[in-house]
Specification:
globular; Leucine-rich Repeat Variant
Length: 247
């Protein structure tokens, strides 16, 4: 009997990965995911299609194709199926982690050139820290981050904000606060959530720095951003901030 691992020997192809992934198609779960990821008319995920596959199953399939060429990843990213694009993005993250400095630069450039296909919050959140955040030195890279932050594309802006999670983990909060300030007036709630999330993570590293930021900017923060930023505060502290700033 032929083992599954031997089926994919030779040059790996996107078509092989897609065929393997589709084995896990779950129509009932797909219906639920379409609602969860806001795929209705006018919603941020409008038109996104789902096969209803669990993340653990997706990652198990991606693991069978560790050396997928960028030309094949491009095919995955061009798919209308959310889970197929997830495979493409996950493949890039894994390959970036294993690549040489030159290979990392190529993957980073490829990723940013295809950011319009990293087009839902889960795709951004699982990839931006491990590619953009790792490529840009902590506290630096503001030319790139500023360009992304000014983009009309929601996903570019979210990539910029969420990529700073890598810097936060290294103890550098500069870009997080810099970008959060820029996103105070962003029209998208997904950006309010992303900025608030990164502020919360920054506060875990340096609560005093977060408090200083809030004293300066909380009065102009969207309620969602503020609520996410103070999530780890005590109930009494959260109530004070929310009542003072958004009574």
């Amino acid at each position: 009997m032929t083992s599954r691992s031997s089926v994919f020997q030779g040059e790996p192809a996107a078509s092989d990965l897609i065929r393997e992934l589709k084995r896990h198609h779950h129509p009932a779960q797909a219906k639920s995911l379409r609602r969860f990821f806001k795929t209705g008319p006018g919603e941020y995920g409008e038109g996104d299609e789902f096969w209803g596959i669990k993340v653990s199953q997706i990652r198990a399939v991606v693991a069978q194709f560790p050396l997928l060429p960028l030309t094949e990843v491009d095919i995955l990213l061009d798919s209308p199926i959310h889970e197929v694009r997830f495979c493409g993005v996950a493949a890039l993250v894994g390959q970036y982690a294993a690549a040489s400095s030159g290979g990392r630069l190529a993957i980073y450039g490829f990723y940013l050139s295809r950011s319009s296909r990293v087009n839902n919050w889960d795709l951004v959140d699982m990839s931006a820290p491990g590619i953009v955040g790792c490529q840009l030195p902590p506290g630096k890279g503001r030319r790139v981050l500023g360009h992304l932050a000014q983009s009309a594309l929601l996903w570019d802006r979210r990539i910029a904000m969420v990529s700073t999670l890598t810097h936060i983990r290294s103890g550098n909060l500069e870009n997080t606060f810099w970008l959060a300030k820029r996103f105070l007036k962003d029209p998208e709630e997904l950006m309010h959530k992303a900025a608030g999330w990164m502020l919360r993570e920054a506060g875990k590293r340096d609560e005093a720095a977060l408090s200083r930021f809030l004293k300066q900017h909380a009065s102009g923060m969207p309620r969602t951003m503020l609520r996410y930023a103070i999530e780890k505060y005590s109930p009494a502290e959260r109530k004070v901030w929310l009542n003072i700033v958004h009574p």
